[in-house]
Amino acid sequence: MIEALLARPSSAEVTHLITTVTNDNQASWALFEGLANRWRTRLERSPFFHQQTHFAGAHATEWLARIGPLPR
């Protein structure tokens, strides 16, 4: 589905795929690592929405996942 969206003409200028995900979401990380490997590009990870700052401790920190540059 991600690749189908990126193949649309309206996505022609997209250079990176960016999302947030919790550190323990193994399925999502596996998907993003797989895409980065398939596209032979980088997957960068960094804390983005911090548990205490943004969620008052009620939700795990959301990490920024940034894949790119995308092949075009």
From TrEMBL:
Keyword tags:
Acyltransferase, Transferase
This entry's Enzyme Commission designation comes to: 2.3.1.-
Its EC top class is: transferase
**Could you tell me which Gene3D superfamilies the record lists for this protein?**
3.40.630.30
**Annotated Gene Ontology MF terms?**
acyltransferase activity
Protein name (Swiss-Prot/TrEMBL): L-2,4-diaminobutyric acid acetyltransferase
